[in-house]
Amino acid sequence: MTIKLLCIGKTDNRELKQLIEVYYKRLQFYNKFEIEIIPDLKKTKNLDENKQKEKEGSLISAKLQNSDFVVLLDENGKEFSSEKFSAYLQKRLNSGLKQLIFIIGGPYGFSEAIYKRADAKIALSQMTFSHQMVRLFFTEQLYRAFTILKNEPYHHR
């Protein structure tokens, strides 16, 4: 199975990019993992929030296959401890999926079409983080989940 993180817009901060790359490389030892960036929309000044979400939703939809299991990283999603997230991940790994896709939306979240397409929603926290920080936190938590599944010492209980 391939695990993919789909994001709107590139990471501008060099230090964040470097940290994300650290976990990206580590994850390659456990599972095929990809990060795919959908470029920011251009000329959004005249778009209201809903129009922007719809346009981003169309770009996201174009990247999805019917067989993909789609998880939105959304503030209203289910929260997990790291251990419970690793169990959730193991369940998905055992399910025979071809692709497990986690999505970080744009600045205003997701369109209704993307919410309807999603198979699940996960919240990393009740706090609000920048979209760029979420990339780092998610890749670290995914790495942590794999180390928990392999009983490796990265995660301390």
TrEMBL record:
Keyword rRNA processing attributed: yes
Known catalytic reactions: pseudouridine(1915) in 23S rRNA + S-adenosyl-L-methionine = N(3)-methylpseudouridine(1915) in 23S rRNA + S-adenosyl-L-homocysteine + H(+)
Signal peptide location: none
Pfam family membership, one: SPOUT_MTase
GO molecular function, one term: rRNA (pseudouridine-N3-)-methyltransferase activity
Keyword set, alphabetical order: Cytoplasm, Methyltransferase, rRNA processing, S-adenosyl-L-methionine, Transferase
Entry EC no(s): 2.1.1.177
Binding site for S-adenosyl-L-methionine: 73, 105, 124-129
Compartments it resides in: Cytoplasm
Stored Gene3D superfamilies: 3.40.1280.10
Keyword Metal-binding part of the UniProt annotation: no
Listed InterPro entries: Alpha/beta_knot_MTases (IPR029028), RlmH-like (IPR003742), tRNA_m1G_MTases_N (IPR029026)
GO cellular component, one term: cytoplasm
Enzyme class: transferase
HAMAP family: 23SrRNA_methyltr_H
Quaternary assembly: Homodimer.
Family named by the database record: Belongs to the RNA methyltransferase RlmH family.
Function: Specifically methylates the pseudouridine at position 1915 (m3Psi1915) in 23S rRNA.
Name of the protein this chain belongs to: Ribosomal RNA large subunit methyltransferase H
